[in-house]
Amino acid sequence: MDLSIVIPLIDEAESLPELTAWIGKVMNENHYSYEIIYVDDGSSDNSWEVIEQLRSKNPNIKGIKFQRNYGKSAGLNEGFRAATGDVVITMDADLQDSPDEIPELRRMILEDGFDMVSGWKKKRHDNTFTKNIPSKFFNAVTRTMSGIKLHDFNCGLKAYKSRTVKGIEVYGEMHRYIPVLAKWSGFKKIGEKVVEHRARKYGKSKFGLRRFINGFLDLLSISFVGRFSKRPMHFFGLWGTIFFMIGLGIAIYLVISKIIDSNFTLTNKPGFYLALTSLVIGMQLFLAGFIGELVSRNSPFRNTYLVEKKTGL
Ligand code: UDP
Ligand code: MG
Questions:
Q1: Does residue 84 share a domain with residue 13?
Q2: CA of 207 to the centre of ligand 1 (A)
């Protein structure tokens, strides 16, 4: 199959018929074999009925309905597991992303050899203050921390090699960081394409300002997990040892001072408190590292690798 189009949605019933028709038109014009995988993330409107109706007219449409709302990441992840196309496209259901971009995205994956291509909503049609400005900041931070040169990490419209989506797991609210997840899994050829963005036609946005707080925390944890989840002691052990040594050094100095001069009072010296806190912090960090090692040792993912190629086997 040429294309799988994965579309996570919640309460987007009005948009679905129009979106389906538009995708269908692009697919037929380009003679692609395709599937549209709608993942209904616990809608409370009649989105699911609409999906079933659309399917009765077009067998390329497939649907998955969650028991409740699990979030966009879960929707994408489930869609990725089900996708069978050589190229996988993701897009939002709200008609803000244009299916006309699909052929060029697909070409970039197949001919330019990208593992994934992210859309860039260069001209955004969203609220300036709640979205556009915070999003510029968010993208700048993510760019610096991840070292991936993208302008728009969280664009819903993206294209992937099949291998890429099968090799990553989108959990929590990590859909904002799929390029980072991909990079950590070794899919380093990440491209960008300026895409047309439109104003929301029906319904309303499902994400509020909170996205930026959660998004930032997720960025911290993803950078950390990517680097240290399989070797937590290398982080915590190092800092734990440094703190412990500083504390121990000061403590030894204080004890020696006391031995030399019995009038020396320990408890009114700043060093005394510094030594105490450093020793405690050092011990805490060291223990965190040790527990981290035990957790990662028991993790079912401790020995999962992505094999790129084999020869003679
Ligand atoms: N969405 C989802 N689950 C959620 C929130 C959103 O599947 O918990 C879908 C939503 O229906 C849409 C896409 O994710 O298809 C992007 O959401 P939205 O358009 O509200 O985000 P925005 O464009 O405002 O960033
Ligand atoms: Mg939207």
A1: yes
A2: 7
